[in-house]
Design goal:
- This protein has three domains: 252 residues, Rossmann fold (3-Layer(aba) Sandwich), CATH 3.40.50; 92 residues, Fumarate Reductase Iron-sulfur Protein, Chain B, domain 2 (Orthogonal Bundle); 103 residues, no CATH class.
- The strands form five sheets. It has a six-stranded parallel beta sheet, sandwiched between helices. A four-stranded mixed beta sheet has the order 8-5-6-9, sandwiched between helices. The chain has a three-stranded antiparallel beta sheet with strand order 13-14-15, with no helix packed on it.
- By secondary structure, the chain is α/β, with parallel strands linked by helices.
- It is built from 26 helices and 17 strands.
Length: 530
């Protein structure tokens, strides 16, 4: 089965489960309210510009800052290993575990360890990695991967979690959130004491101290970094910051943007090998490149490494809200996932999710790192089209037909008459007139267009054909405005244009419709044809 077919099946399955989509939409709405409240009285635009600048300074000085971090971390007693890829990173921890005769590693949440398929790599050597973040533990029991950067098990309902925990407990547990959390707390607590090694990620690698910063809500990262005798930090090199001041500035944005909190429950700063139970703990910091240097070198995409992993670009994304993170992403999900998948796993792995983006720009609007995610995805669409082509139908449509205004408009008019046998009355539309196309005959067009979505039919009369008959009885208008309708309002939803004229006329504004206008080019642009 090809990637394309698999992806479409995943989309179909996700759409067939409206419960998940409803929950994600509701979550997205509530998230926006909480986020707005959290930023009350603050200048988000100024804050994110500053964050972007902080990250750009790191990019420009990354070699010096990395060397400074290593020097200071080693001076504080830490051992630092720079891994060129995730395999080297895994190997380092496996060798360390063997050297310590370690059988159990207690882990807190770390996306880079997901990227490294860390648990699986360790299992192959007889070492068990135990997830201690509640969401990650749920997924470990379910044998699934995260579907969100901050809330990895957001796609699971409490009844499903109760079923998993019941199996683990050997007794039926009620699907009540508090009792499920209580069970997890008791069940996981012993793991910290039994673990030979604790592994955490790092939100910050602070160059001028050699310390790390962790921003969490569950406290498990603190236990993982404190109780076992050996602490391993697993982090991407892009987590570098110059100093504590920069880290604190980022900490003002991260919780607000991630969960609408002013501050997370735990913010932990650790520097070096700390005393533990009368002995000195070992701290090993594994810094992973894994494609980040290549991404830094891409002028069109490098801003993606400003990401502080707040997850907001998923929370607001209509595609994510419709199909969830297992479909719209890979290790990393949603808008940032599209970009990182292309760089860390290859363009081939990212091509379907790149095309899935509808270009609404919601992600760019909420990103606290000032990343224009949509612009980068648009660039990747071009790359995908260059590499894999656009398909014959789109090529002919965009290059031969839509560029030629007369031909395009005549074809649309003809299609509005010929479409009748393939249109149906819409189930959702209040208007009696609205019809949709559910199946196109193969010889007309690629069936992919309508196989898993409905298309609106072309209106019987276009806006341009009705414009001259719309009365505008204004004697002395305050303004005269030109209306660019776009293909949607011109050929599919002319009633939108008619209503707009009514509104503008009521404000004493006359509307002019230049008939020479043509398609704006968005369909071609979003198909990667720049
Ligand atoms: S621009 Fe694309 S990735 Fe961003 S929110 Fe919209 S659909 Fe999602
Ligand atoms: S890209 Fe921006 S919005 Fe998305 S997770 Fe990263 S920082 Fe958050």
């Amino acid at each position: 089965m090809g990637t394309n077919t698999t992806y479409k099946k995943d989309v179909e399955q996700a759409i067939a489960n409206p419960k998940l989509s409803e929950a994600l939409h509701l979550f997205g709405d509530n998230y926006l309210i909480a986020r707005e409240k959290a930023y009350e009285g603050l200048d988000f635009e100024a804050m994110r510009t500053e964050l972007g600048d902080i990250k750009d300074i790191v990019r420009l000085n990354r070699e010096e800052l990395l060397a400074e971090f290593v020097k200071n971390a080693e001076a504080a007693g830490s051992k630092v290993f720079i891994a060129k890829d995730v395999h080297e990173a895994n190997e380092y921890v496996i060798n360390l575990a063997k050297e310590k005769n370690a059988k159990l590693i207690a882990k807190s949440k770390s996306m880079v360890s997901e990227e490294a398929h860390f648990n699986k790599a360790l299992e192959a050597h007889g070492i068990r990695a135990s997830e201690t973040d509640l969401g990650e533990w749920i997924l470990q029991l379910a044998g699934q991967r995260p579907s969100h950067l901050v809330m990895p098990a957001i796609h699971m309902f409490k009844e499903e979690v109760a079923e998993l925990f019941s199996k683990e407990a050997g007794e039926t547990l009620s699907p009540e959130i508090k009792s499920l959390v209580d069970y997890a707390r008791v069940r996981l607590r012993q793991e910290y004491f039994d673990a030979d090694i604790g592994l955490t990620g790092a939100n910050f690698l602070i160059a001028n101290t050699g310390g790390i910063g962790l921003v969490t809500n569950e406290g498990n990262a603190r236990l993982c970094s404190t109780l076992p005798k050996v602490h391993v930090v697993f982090a991407g090199i892009h987590k570098l910051v110059r100093n504590m001041e920069d880290a604190i500035k980022i900490t003002r944005l991260l919780p607000r943007n991630a969960t609408g909190q002013l501050l997370t429950s735990y913010v932990t700063w650790i520097r070096g090998a700390v005393p533990c139970d009368g002995e000195t703990k070992e701290q090993h910091i594994v810094l992973i490149d894994g494609g980040r240097s290549a991404l830094y070198e891409s002028p069109a995409c490098r801003d993606a490494l400003r990401c502080i992993q707040c997850g907001a670009c998923a929370n607001v994304c209509p595609v994510y809200q419709t199909v969830g993170g297992h479909v719209f992403g890979s290790t990393y999900i949603s808008a940032i996932g599209v970009i990182l998948t292309a760089f860390y796993e290859g363009l081939d792995k990212a091509k379907e999710i790149t095309r899935a983006c509808i270009g609404c720009r919601s992600c760019s609007a909420v990103c606290p790192s000032n990343i224009d995610l949509e612009e980068i995805i648009l660039h990747l669409k071009e790359e995908v089209t260059k590499e894999y082509g656009m398909g014959v139908i789109k090529n002919v449509a965009f290059k031969a037909i839509m560029k030629n205004r007369g031909l395009f408009h005549n074809m649309v008019r003809a299609a509005s008459k010929l479409q009748r046998p393939v249109t149906h009355k819409s189930r959702n539309e209040s208007s009696d007139q609205r019809r949709i196309i559910r199946h196109l005959p193969m010889h007309f067009m690629n069936k992919d267009f309508t196989e898993w979505r409905d298309l609106p039919s072309i209106a019987p009369k276009s806006f341009r054909d009705m414009f001259d008959t719309i009365p505008q009885t204004l004697f002395n208008p305050d303004y005269k405005v030109g209306f660019f309708a776009g293909c949607g309002a011109d050929f599919v939803y002319p009633e939108v244009g008619v209503s707009m004229i009514k509104v503008l006329n009521a404000l004493n504004v006359e509307v002019v419709f230049p008939k020479g206008q043509n398609c704006c080019g968005i369909p071609a642009l979003y198909s990667g044809d720049a």
